[in-house]
Amino acid sequence: MPDRAVSDANIWISGLLWRGRPYQCLLLASAGLVQLVYCDAMAAELSGKLRRAFGFSENHIRAVLDEFRQVSERVEITGDLRVVTDDPDDDKFIECAVAGGAACVVSGDNHLLDFGEYQGVGILSAAEFLARFT
Q1: CA–CA separation, 30 vs 36, rounded Å?
Q2: Which residues pair with 109 in a beta bridge?
């Protein structure tokens, strides 16, 4: 069974638009070497950012979300977890990881990266995550 992980919106967007480490993280999921988990709030954030910040069309957003769902397993969260005081909107990523039994959250967000770890769930940069597989 592959490792379970949560990739935040920064990883998804960077992976979609550029071919660096975030892209390589997503390739691990596409290859079945990692099982990504997500919640509805994460999908909503991703689609909103693609629409507002990058001007993606609704068809393009649907295609991205279809790919997102193909390589990810949906889990339910309550939205009650409150641990990232500097950016409470990031709580969903940690709660999703806990609910989905993920070993880590892969992020490019300093609010999460500075947090470091929560209940055994590591918060890793793309480089740190990739180091586990090389």
Answers
A1: 9
A2: none
For residue 103, the tally of other CB atoms under 10 A from its CB is 16
Altogether, the residues listed in the chain come to a count of 134
> What gap in Å lies between CA 57 and CA 116, rounded to an integer?
35
CATH number of domain containing 30: 3.40.50.1010
User: Hey, what are 37's tokens?
Assistant: 């988990």
Q: What is the distance between the alpha carbons of residues 115 and 87, in angstroms, rounded to a whole number?
A: 11
The structural domain count of the chain equals 1
Residue 36 · residue 73 · CB < 8 Å: yes
Q: Name every residue whose Cβ is closer than 8 Å to that of residue 19 and which is 6 or more positions away in sequence.
A: none
Residue 123 structural domain: 3-131
Pairwise CA distance, residues 1 & 111, whole Å:
30
CA dist., res. 122 & res. 115, Å (int): 9
**Model confidence over 87-125: pLDDT tens digits?**
999 999 999 999 999 999 999 999 999 988 999 999 999
Query: Model's pTM, two decimal places?
Result: 0.93
Contact call for residues 16 and 122 (beta carbons, < 8 A): no
CA distance 52 to 35: 28
